[in-house]
Design goal:
Two copies of one chain form a homodimer.
Chain A (H helix, E strand, L loop, with lengths): L2 H9 L2 H11 L3 E2 H5 L6 H13 L3 E6 L2 E6 L4 H10 L5 H14 L1
Antiparallel strand pairs in A: 1-3, 2-3
The first copy, chain A, binds a DNA duplex (30 and 30 nucleotides) through helix 4.
Chain lengths: ~100, ~100
DNA sequence: ACTATATTCAACCTAACGGTTGAGTATTGA
DNA sequence: TCAATACTCAACCGTTAGGTTGAATATAGT
């Protein structure tokens, strides 16, 4: 499993994408992440581990609490790969292009 | 399974990404796609089906030959989702931003 | 010291994935 | 008409993924 495999696979699960959405609004503990889900804490713990293995989430321990933070590095490869085939999904990248123009 | 799940999952396999790479250089038959791989035709046929289910590949039959073509539509959702969290992997999107600026 | 909290680990289950082989079905070309 | 070609379908197999439960571990608060 290379980095790209891990990143795409991590993003393929809706629960994990929701976890990312939550972490985008700030770091959180495993319990905080689990709260909105109708699923065991253990299940979420596993999902976090998948995101961590993909490098999308970093963990720092504070006593008994594990604080998770979103980390963008693996996305470089994802976006690089996507941009390689830009002309095949070019219309789709326009929105992102506009967005980037406005922020650069 | 929603569209985003299917798209990300389809992209998570290196064989399928290679198939996409090949199709980016032109439409091809199943046999053509299978040629470079040390893998049965059936395995490739399955991979193609996964890409098809994700909408990334379209198939048109010409007699006994099935011609596959790359199709970008599902990427709209992928890129939209990615761009929503742009500030977390912002550095990474720069390259794509530059690329888009030069082509728009 | 004791209890509650935060988390992981381990074992288990079922379903899906990625591959195989063997057979079946059209279509093509001789 | 017949054989080769291009493919799919179906069954199987081993591994992984996503979930569960139950127990272990470590830290925090009283």
């Amino acid at each position: 499993m290379n980095a790209l495999d891990n990143a795409f696979a991590a993003l393929a699960d809706p629960t994990r994408r929701k976890i990312i959405a939550k972490l985008a609004r700030g770091s959180a503990r495993v319990t905080d992440l689990a709260a909105p889900f109708d699923m065991s804490l253990n299940a979420i713990s596993k999902h976090v581990k998948v995101l961590e293995r993909a490098g999308l989430v970093h963990r720092r321990r504070h006593g008994r609490e594990h604080v998770l933070t979103l980390h963008g590095a693996p996305m470089r490869d994802v976006v690089t790969w996507l941009s390689r085939y830009e002309r095949f999904w070019n219309i789709k990248l326009d929105a992102l292009g506009e967005f980037l123009k406005s922020t650069n």
